[in-house]
Write a structure and sequence with these properties.
Subcellular location: Periplasm
Pfam family, one: Thioredoxin_2
CATH class of the largest domain: Alpha Beta
Family: Belongs to the thioredoxin family. DsbC subfamily.
Number of strands: 9
Shape: globular
Helix content: 25-40%
Oligomer: single chain
Order of helices and strands: HHHEEEEHEEHEHHHEEH
Keywords: Periplasm, Redox-active center, Signal
Organism: Marinospirillum alkaliphilum DSM 21637
CATH topology of the largest domain: Glutaredoxin
Length: 301
């Protein structure tokens, strides 16, 4: 495996494995995107474009290994931020101001805020709401039915999930009352937490659409249990689907699961990584607050 491949793989896996479990630290976060388009955009903004003639040695090393250095952006007194790209994959990295060290990870401030996620949203191109429809997802339709048998869908929510993510199971549990109120949830599978995450995701993606919600429900209700019907070796198509989903999640600046994506009443796109507190769900779903008697959700009230 080449240096650049190891760099990108390590970047992605560390960021997802750790932030996906809601731990903190100084870790790596990678994004996907259209590096060429972004470079062209940056070139049209000379006031924001950093001089690339005087690069710190760690950044020069990345450049020598085939990564494109797209731009520098301000971080603070002790760090410099960089957007680098390799084969269309855009990454945020940092160097110390003395040029001695490169930081490959999620940057937290003294208050525990994820600065890297904010930098990703500000400095990297992001998909829009319509791009989410191209993802490979499972649909849990609204379960609100009229007396005449018509299904009522008030709003749609996208959630990135790993079948082995305990917080995704809690998110699924929390959203079921909102489905009864008219919410459609589109679950976008990614796979990174455990060795069998890919097998579970492949089984979900390959199932007939009418069976997908039933398998998803079983995965959530029997969470963590071995389920033969959710053990499928991914084929080439499913591997491509999972990679595309992961790329989409990263390009939205979502560094862990569950990854929530929704539109507000003005059509603005919002994202959140990790389990939401229950009082936020009405704003996220656009629906009235629902009851949650489940003991497992008590800590999120």
């Amino acid at each position: 495996m080449s240096f650049t491949s190891r760099f990108l793989q390590r970047s992605l896996m560390i960021a997802l494995l750790v932030t996906g479990l809601l731990l903190t630290g100084l870790l790596m976060a990678g994004l996907t995107g259209n590096g060429q388009a972004f470079a062209q955009q940056a070139a049209t903004q000379p006031g924001q474009q950093s001089s690339l003639l005087d690069l710190p040695e760690p950044i020069q090393h990345l450049q020598n290994q085939g990564l494109d250095i797209l731009r520098e952006f301000p971080v603070g007194a002790s760090l410099r931020g960089w957007v680098v790209s390799f084969e269309g994959r855009d990454l945020i990295v940092y160097t110390t101001t003395d040029g001695e060290f490169l930081i490959n990870g999620v940057l937290l401030n003294a208050q525990g805020q994820d600065l890297t996620e904010a930098h990703q949203k500000e400095w990297l191109p992001r998909p829009d709401w319509n791009d989410l429809a191209s993802a490979s997802y499972l649909t849990e339709s609204s379960s609100r039915i009229t007396d005449s048998g018509d299904r009522i869908t008030e709003n749609t929510l996208y959630v990135f999930f790993d079948a082995n993510c305990p917080f995704c199971q809690l998110a699924w549990m929390a959203l079921q009352p909102y489905r009864a109120a008219g919410l459609e949830v589109r679950w976008i599978p990614v796979a990174y937490l455990k060795p069998d995450s890919r097998n579970r995701a492949a089984a979900l993606l390959s199932a007939p659409p009418s069976r997908q919600p039933l398998l998803l429900e079983r995965n959530m209700k029997e969470f963590g249990q071995p389920l033969p019907e959710l053990d499928k070796t991914p084929d080439n198509l499913e591997r491509e689907q999972l990679q595309a989903n992961m790329d989409l999640m990263q390009s939205l600046g979502i560094n862990g699961t569950p990854g929530w994506v929704w539109q507000d009443a003005d059509g603005k796109l919002h994202t959140h990584a990790g389990m939401l507190r229950l009082p936020r769900l009405p704003d996220v779903t656009g629906l009235p607050a629902q009851q949650h008697p489940e003991p497992a959700l008590m800590r999120f009230r």
